[in-house]
Write a structure and sequence with these properties.
By secondary structure, the protein is an alpha/beta fold. Helix content is 24%, strand content 23%. The chain has two domains: 9-245, Aminopeptidase (3-Layer(aba) Sandwich), CATH 3.40.630; 249-314, Beta Barrel (OB fold (Dihydrolipoamide Acetyltransferase, E2P)). The strands form two sheets. The chain has an eleven-stranded mixed beta sheet, with helices on both faces. It has a three-stranded antiparallel beta sheet with strand order 9-11-12, with no helix packed on it. Strand 11 (276-279) and strand 12 (285-287) form a beta hairpin.
Length: 323
């Protein structure tokens, strides 16, 4: 697979401005972003759209091995422990050695994804504090303001601090046989976290279910709206919209192969305080500690890995912010 090449399409305007990079197919079976970015690239190449300010880099296929296999991963998940390495072993190490310097050349990132179960598109942004959980994140308000222009109705935050709390819990009570990666806080570092570590702003857009025919349109419209908001194309600025906000608060791991959900949960299914979510093989019953939502349930999660997240409402995204 090392004979595969990496491709980015760069468009640079005569006038200076923001440097934006947009990724598709970080996971190879998530193709909405690829279709959306190829559509936009074609319009720019044919002169149907013109970049009037700044520089735009489109990466329709970020992980060509996973894409060629139509699988989430090639050798491993590219969107975990993303960093350059002097001794690449897995294919995704080679991707990272190409991708990380490319990200560092830009001011901002939009990463286009999709998800397995049916559901509505949503955006993910950084928390008010990122990476160390203490230092205020320089671009926190900017990410919120830009997310409000992407055309979705829901936004999620809290990924990194919630993941870090999960790692701390696992270290305090190790589970025999658990994957070593689950004990590594850097395993939570993906494209957006890496971009923020380089001083930029970053957002993930989940365009809908993998096979939803509307997904590519969601991704395309979001990128066009973002370009208009940043003044990079000659188009009306999109109207901002208040978003339903959910904050990840807790991650629950699967501890035994016989641990099982009480029912077939989907992301953003609501739960009531005391409602049974799952049952451990030990007989322990897991209930919702408060009213909230189930997020990212993984029915087939590995023992020792993330099983599901819990989220609560946040009003962080309810007030429309300036761009």
């Amino acid at each position: 697979m090392l004979d595969m090449h990496f491709q980015s399409l760069r468009f640079t305007a005569a006038q200076p401005g923001p440097r934006l990079i947009v990724l598709g197919a970080v996971h190879g079976n998530e193709r909405a972003g690829t279709i959306a970015l190829r559509r936009l690239a074609g319009e720019l190449e044919r002169g149907e759209r013109t970049l009037v300010r700044g520089a735009l880099t489109l990466v329709p296929i970020t992980n060509p091995k996973a894409y060629s296999q139509n699988t989430r991963n090639g050798d491993r998940n590219l969107n975990r422990r993303l960093r350059p390495t002097a001794l690449p072993v897995e294919f995704e190490d080679h991707v990272a050695n190409w991708l990380c310097p490319l990200l560092s050349e830009h001011d901002g990132l939009l990463d286009l994804h999709s998800f397995m179960a049916p559901g509505e598109p949503f955006a993910l942004v950084g928390s008010e504090t990122e990476l160390d959980g203490v230092t205020p994140f320089l671009h926190a308000e900017r990410e919120v303001a830009l997310a409000q222009r992407l055309g979705v109705n829901r936004c999620v935050d809290g990924w990194l601090p919630t993941y870090d709390r999960g790692v701390a819990r696992r270290l305090a009570r190790p589970l025999p046989g658990a994957p070593a990666a689950t004990l590594d806080t850097e395993y939570a570092i993906g494209t957006t976290e890496y971009m923020r570590s380089r001083g930029g702003w970053a957002m993930t857009l989940e365009c809908g279910q993998h096979e939803d025919p509307a997904g590519p349109e969601v991704g395309y419209r979001a990128v066009v709206s973002l370009l208009a908001e940043l003044g990079m194309i000659d188009a009306p600025r999109p109207a901002p919209r208040p978003l339903e906000g959910l904050r990840l608060t807790e991650v629950i791991d699967r501890e035994h192969a016989e641990d099982a959900f009480e029912r077939d949960w989907k992301s953003f299914d609501p739960v009531r305080a005391g409602e049974v979510i799952a049952r451990r093989a030990s007989g322990e019953v897991l209930t919702a500690p408060q009213d909230g939502w189930i997020v990212f349930p993984a029915k087939a999660a590995m023992v020792g890995a993330e099983w599901f997240y819990l989220a609560e409402r946040t009003e962080r995204f309810a007030q429309v912010l300036g761009g």
